[in-house]
């Protein structure tokens, strides 16, 4: 009987502990979701800041990118320099990142025309660093044939694991 009583008490203690943990987690979920929304608001703040300042100012498409990582880094660099930016066509890129689908998966980063020179220097520097790091070599004939076949058959170019699609500067290079 002592053994049964001890097991019942332990089971009751364990049950109370699990119940408390469950109720604490349940009450913490709305707070966590609120924090996530605040985090996403911070990400959207870059677009909102751009749109708030737009008021008829002309814009220029600065960079085309196929990599979400490049978009995030470039926007962070531009924001650090005080250059407002706006991302267009980000939805398809988040579904199929790093895959070239003829004007469906590319992301354009727009800046104001009066901030273009500073933004171009930042983007050029970033792209040049990526080229230097990747040691961009000319593609082999086999890779070119594979890309041509993929484009003809499926309309999609999927890079192999060694290939990194670099962002493209859409404005003329500075001298």
Keywords:
single chain; 175 residues; alpha+beta; Alpha-Beta Plaits; four-stranded antiparallel β-sheet; 5 helices; 60% helix; elongated
What is the fold named in CATH at topology level?
Alpha-Beta Plaits
Which strand order do you get reading across the main beta sheet?
Answer: 2-3-1-4
Spatial extent as radius of gyration: 25 Å
Q: Helicity level, as a percent range? A: 55-70%
Provide the CATH top-level class. Alpha Beta
Structural class: alpha+beta
Low-confidence stretches: 32-44
Question: Which series of helices and strands comes N to C?
Answer: HEHEHEHHE
* Tally of domains: 1
Mean pLDDT: 73
Can you summarize the main beta sheet?
4 strands, antiparallel
CATH architectural arrangement: 2-Layer Sandwich
Strand content: 5-15%
Report the total helices: 5
Oligomeric state of this protein: single chain
Molecular structure report:
- This protein is 60% helix and 11% strand.
- It has 175 residues and is an alpha+beta fold.
- The chain has one domain: Alpha-Beta Plaits.
Concise overview:
This protein has helices spanning 2-54, 68-80, 90-95, 116-134, 141-154; strands at 59-65, 85-88, 107-112, 168-169. It has 175 residues and is an alpha+beta fold. It starts with a helix and ends in a 6-residue tail after the last strand.
């Amino acid at each position: 009987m002592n053994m049964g009583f001890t097991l019942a008490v332990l089971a009751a203690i364990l049950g109370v502990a699990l119940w408390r943990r469950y109720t604490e987690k349940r009450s913490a979920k709305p707070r966590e979701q609120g924090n996530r929304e605040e985090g996403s608001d911070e990400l959207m703040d870059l677009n909102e800041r751009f749109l708030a300042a737009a008021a008829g100012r002309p814009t220029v498409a600065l960079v085309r990118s196929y990599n979400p990582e490049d978009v995030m880094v470039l926007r962070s660099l531009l924001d650090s320099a005080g250059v407002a930016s706006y991302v267009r066509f980000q939805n398809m890129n988040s579904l199929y990142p790093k895959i070239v689908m003829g004007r469906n998966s590319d992301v354009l980063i727009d800046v104001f025309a009066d901030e273009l020179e500073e933004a171009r220097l930042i983007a050029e520097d970033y792209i040049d660093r990526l080229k230097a790091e990747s040691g961009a070599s000319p593609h082999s004939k086999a890779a070119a044939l594979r890309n041509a076949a993929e484009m003809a058959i499926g309309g999609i170019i999927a890079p192999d694991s060694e290939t990194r699609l670099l962002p493209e500067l859409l404005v003329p290079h500075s001298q």
